[in-house]
């Protein structure tokens, strides 16, 4: 379970989030929508612990993220979370297979599922290629394979289908659903796409006054 408790964040004196509270139940697939600039990516970054709130706290299974030291926070992210960022953060000097296998290797697991996940995102047989040989949509799919490969308990996805054509996007959304259902994982997906939001258990709208059910 993930609890957001009165989260506030401002940049340069301008409030982006002001006292936002919400509880996400374990295993729930939630879509967050809202107008550009309202703070959706900021919220995901706070949940991921990649940025700190000015006030308020994020609790993961009852533990305040702020109470963890850097090593413990990194361990929590590495073992329990999967990330799909808007900028894909695919490492240029690693092959696609090595990129996808990274969460497994960092967790001391064998990298057996990397090829299976490349296959699942439509990049089977391209494991030895390097990121520079890929299109934007293909890079996004590598990032998706990497986010799922270690079966995280919580998937955080920022516009995971933003660079994909509608058919490929649909296939990827089905993969996200299938993988999270199989492992009982929760997901928080920021999206402008109504097709993407339609497959979530719950769609929330982020506005200046907080998160609301649609
Ligand atoms: N590091 C930063 N420094 C200064 N301002 C920032 C920073 N990060 C975000 N902002 C500002 O905070 C506001 C919210 O940004 P955020 O990226 O969270 O919006 P968003 O809802 O995800 O938008 P979009 O749908 O366009 O991706 C924006 O006005 C943005 O300019």
Automatic annotation (TrEMBL):
Q: Which PROSITE patterns match?
A: ABC_TRANSPORTER_1, ABC_TRANSPORTER_2
A Gene Ontology molecular function term for this protein is: ATP binding
What domain of life does the UniProt record list for this protein's source? Bacteria
Q: Locate the ABC transporter domain: which residues?
A: 2-213
Q: Which SUPFAM superfamilies match?
A: P-loop containing nucleoside triphosphate hydrolases
Q: Which UniProt keywords apply?
A: ATP-binding, Cell membrane, Membrane, Nucleotide-binding, Transport
For this protein, the record's InterPro entries field holds:
AAA+_ATPase (IPR003593), ABC_transporter-like_ATP-bd (IPR003439), ABC_transporter-like_CS (IPR017871), ABC_transpr_LolD-like (IPR015854), MacB-like_ATP-bd (IPR017911), P-loop_NTPase (IPR027417)
**Secreted is among the record's keywords:** no
Q: Known Pfam families for this protein?
A: ABC_tran
- The answer to whether keyword Transport applies is yes
Protein name per UniProt: ABC transporter ATP-binding protein
What broad taxonomic lineage does this protein's source fall under?
Bacteria, Pseudomonadati, Pseudomonadota, Betaproteobacteria, Burkholderiales
